[in-house]
Every structure is written in C-alpha cells, then in structure tokens.
Design goal:
Elements lengths: L14 E5 L2 E5 L11 H19 L4 H8 L3 H14 L18 H14 L3 H10 L7 H11 L22 E11 L8 E9 L5 E7 L4 H15 L4 E4 L15 H9 L2 E4 L9 H15 L7 H17 L11 H6 L18 H7 L4
Parallel strand pairs: 3-6, 6-7
Antiparallel strand pairs: 1-2, 3-4, 4-5
Length: 361
C-alpha cells in the first residue's frame, strides 16, 4: 500500500547482490563480508611503499602523513618492517581477538532473524535477552551480522527536542494518516488510518482504517478509548480539518466533544510534526512493519491488518525508548511473557523453525 507521497514505494524484500568473487544476501544496502581481496591488498602495499620512497627522498613526515592519511608512528613502523621483511612487512598483520563466545546455532539464529525482520543490532540483542534465548550484547550482534554480510550502513540520527509525561493518561496523541492506496484491484481505492497513542507509555489506545478524513470515525475511536482506558487530562492534535474548525471563532465537532469531556485540547504549531512525535513515530513503524510488507486489497483487509498489528505492538513489541519494554508493561503493568517468535508478524511464518534453533541452557 504505497503512500500518496511515494506511490512507487515497493515492499521491503531481501536482495541478492553479486560482485567479483562473492554472492551474498543483503538487506536494504548491506555489504559483502569483509575480507581483503588481492586488488585491495596490492593497492595498500603500493600506497605505503610510495610513502616510504617520499620519506627516503627527504620529504617531511608531516607532509607525507597528511597526504596518505596515517600517523607518524605508522609511517616509521612501516619503514622498520620494510627494512626487515621487504614488501611483506607492509601487509596488515592479523589481529588476535577473542574467540566468539556465541554458539554457532545462536549466530545462525541471529542472521535468520535479521534477514526476516530488518531489526538493528540493539533491537536484536534486546529481543534475545528478554525472550531468554541468549544474553547477547549489541556489539556481539554487530560482529555477527558484519561477518555474514547482512549489516546496513547508516548515518547517525540527530535527535530533536523530546518530552514525556510522567504517567499514563496525562497526554494522548491523535492523528490521521493517508491516503493509502489498495493494491490488486481493478478500480484502485484508498483509505486513511486514524490512531491514538498514549504519551507516557506509547500504548496504542486505538486504530481504525477509515474511507475518508471525517470527524465521526475519529470521535468513535476517541469514545471507545475513553471507555476502555479512562479520560485523559490533555489531548494533542495537529491543525487538520477533522480536529480544528476553519473559522477561528467556531468550535469543530471534535473540539466540542473534548470540551464535554473536560479534556484540554493542545494544538501543534503549523509545520512542526515533531511536536506530535509519538503518533508520527508510530506511523513510521506501521509503514515499515505492516504496509511495506502486505498488499491490502480493500478497507476490510486494511482494518483487519492494523487491528491484528495493534495487539502485537502493545503486548509483544519491545520499544527502544521504553528501555526495551512493551507499551503494555508501562501502561498497565501487563507482563511480557514471550519466549519464542510466534507473535512477531515478520517471523510468524518461520517461528516453528526458529524456535527449534533456540538452544536449551
């Protein structure tokens, strides 16, 4: 279900990438396993030998190091090793490292889960620890996926301003997203999604697939959440037409309903989506874990997909901003009892096989 802003967006999938001397399974920009090829080793030796010739010719070490990109200690180390061993002394020597403490079966399990779920190393380590599969650190996972050629290079994100209420039901975030177009139909239709998230716990209070951007489905979603979870102190929305009246002197139907419930309505400033960031982050998660992985044919299929995902998101999905707890653990204390992968949508098809690989400790 591609979004209107990117109608040609394709579902995520694994890619086989081929090059000289290797064939590997990569995910979203992965790289082949690191292992020096003959061309790379020869270029390194030539570059270092050229630096030593410049040093013998009388150039200053500072100028040579600036051009080559090395330290002065490395330059003199290359000179002494070349004088003793010839060109072989300019090769990188293997570094002694500790033997891996992770059993091979766990490494295979990490790589398989990585290829199916696209989880990063911190998420993989947290999932394996909390499901009591193996006490992995994210550094161990980084080394495993790097050796297997399934890592993804990424630039560090710059975090924006953040805030969080101290308790559940102090602040709720509500928003609509879309349109999302149906796939596989002769006459392409579309739908919108309406979602409601608690600020403190990121608990998904409700979600619906609706045909249009109207206030009535949003009000029904809000009233259902109030009946199940209580009345919030504040509710945050953007300035869209379902939430705010066009005329400033008038109240929309949504605003009148909030006034009846005695809920303070907080409106974000224009062009500041990060202010309503909890629900915006949920839309990104929904896009990556549901909409990019499924072809939804109609409104009923979209509603069934998001309702099924809501149960996983609240009860079984670990959240990095919650110290790798589930939203339900923080919202009402519902314990996390998962020990396998059968509740993870991206791993459900292979859950029985993955559970067989889990070592008994």
């Amino acid at each position: 279900m591609p979004r209107l802003s990117d109608p040609r967006r394709l579902p995520r999938r694994n890619h086989y990438q081929e090059g000289p001397g290797f064939l590997f399974l990569a995910t979203q920009g992965g790289r082949p396993p690191t292992g020096g090829s003959a061309e790379r080793v020869a270029s390194v030796v030539r570059r270092r030998r050229a630096a030593l010739r410049r040093l013998e010719a009388g150039e200053t070490p500072a100028a040579i190091c600036a051009d080559v990109g090395c330290s002065r200690a490395s330059l003199y180390r290359w000179r002494s090793r070349h004088a003793r061993d010839g060109l072989g002394g300019l090769l990188d020597r293997p570094r002694r490292g500790r033997a891996s403490s992770v059993p091979p079966v766990v490494e295979r399990l990490v790589v398989t889960v990585r290829l199916l779920s696209y989880w990063n190393s911190r998420r993989l380590a947290a999932e394996f620890r909390r499901r009591e599969i193996w006490p992995l650190s994210h550094a161990q996972v980084d080394r495993i996926v790097s050796r297997a050629g399934t890592h993804r290079p990424s630039s560090a994100r710059q975090p924006g301003p953040r805030y969080e209420r101290a308790a559940p039901n102090e602040l709720w975030h509500i928003d609509m997203k879309g349109p999302f177009y149906f796939a596989g139909t002769a006459r392409r239709g579309s739908c919108h999604f309406a979602g409601l998230v608690d600020d403190h716990s990121r608990y998904l209070l409700g979600i619906r697939a609706v045909p249009t951007r109207e206030a009535l489905p949003i009000l029904e979603l809000l009233h259902e959440a109030v009946e199940l979870c209580g009345v919030p102190l504040e509710l945050m929305t953007d300035n869209g037409t379902p939430f705010v009246a066009i005329v400033r002197s008038m109240l929309s139907r949504f605003q009148r309903s909030l006034a009846d419930l005695r809920v303070r309505h907080i409106r974000t400033q224009i062009d500041t989506p990060w202010t309503n960031g909890k629900i915006e982050a949920f839309w990104n998660i929904l896009q990556a874990e549901v909409l990019d992985r499924q072809h939804l044919a109609d409104l009923a299929a979209a509603e069934a997909a998001v309702q099924a995902y809501a149960g996983y998101y609240n009860l079984h999905r670990l959240h990095g901003e919650l110290a790798w707890h589930t939203p339900a653990e923080r919202f009402d204390g519902t314990p996390f009892t998962d020990r396998g992968f059968e509740h993870v949508p991206s791993l459900a098809g292979a859950a029985s096989l993955l559970n067989q690989l889990i070592p008994l400790r």
